Amino acid sequence: MSTESDITPTAADRHHPLLKLALELGPLLIFFFANLRGQWLVETFPALSELGGPLFVATGLFMAATILSLIVSKIVLGHLPIMPFVSGIVVVIFGSLSIWLQNETFIKMKPTIVNALFGVALLGGLAFGKSLLGYVFNAAFQLDAEGWRKLTIRWGIFFLFLAVLNEVVWRNFSDSTWVAFKVWGTMPITIIFTLAQMPLVLKHSINLETEGEK
Predict the structure, then answer these.
(1) Residue 63 C-alpha from the chain's centroid
(2) Which terminal CB of the chain, N or C, has fewer other CB atoms within 10 Å?
(3) How far apart are the first and last CA of the chain?
């Protein structure tokens, strides 16, 4: 089983950009709309009532959609993107616990666990002199050591910020608000943060051909 960087496009990725986007966003959209129309789904498909309330129905469909998206990614694109793969594992584990125990806490804490995991891994790697972000992004662009260090710190802190933010939202707002935030809030925040890093990337970018001629 092979995994690839999320921002290092393979030939298949370049030929199927819309499919790649659909595979990453599809499960989240299904989760959002299933929670929104949970009662209708149960009335239309009575078997879903075995899962529990609307959020549990949405969780079950989210798990199924996540697994399906990973299978299609492997077959069509030829690899499993790292972050969706790790997130998918946590979705299945915590989603299963939520449905089995009829406890919404597990699925609500999934973003917290995933983001905290990535944040600790990045910052922990720096503590041992390793910029793990460099291993993921180095095929997309090349930075000097200081650039990788700064970018890794920023992404590590950002992931921890997302973990804390998820805890604040799910513990203080309604299920519908949390689901909407998970789908429509997290992604725009991440895109804005990513774009904000471009000055750092440009400042510390290196030209390998130029470096090789020196």
Answers:
(1) 14
(2) C
(3) 39
CA-closest candidate to residue 61, choices 77, 45, 80, 81: 45
Residue partners of 16: CB distance under 8 A and separation at least 6: 76, 77
CA distance 185 to 54: 21
Can you state the angle between helices 54-72 and 17-36, rounded to 10 degrees? 170
What pTM was estimated for this model as a whole? 0.71
User: What pLDDT digit, counting tens, does each position of 19-52 carry?
Assistant: 766 777 788 888 888 887 878 888 888 888 888 8
* Amino acid type, 50: E
User: CA 207 to CA 192: how far, in whole Å?
Assistant: 26
User: What sign results for the dihedral spanned by CA atoms 118, 16, 31, 102?
Assistant: negative
Q: Is the dihedral of CA 12, 186, 120, 126 positive or negative?
A: positive
pLDDT at 212: 46
Condensed to tens digits (0 to 9), the pLDDT of residues 84-139 reads: 777 888 888 988 989 998 888 889 998 999 899 889 988 888 887 777 776 666 55
**Per-residue tokens: 99:** 């449905």
User: Beta-carbon neighbour count of residue 213 at 10 Å?
Assistant: 7
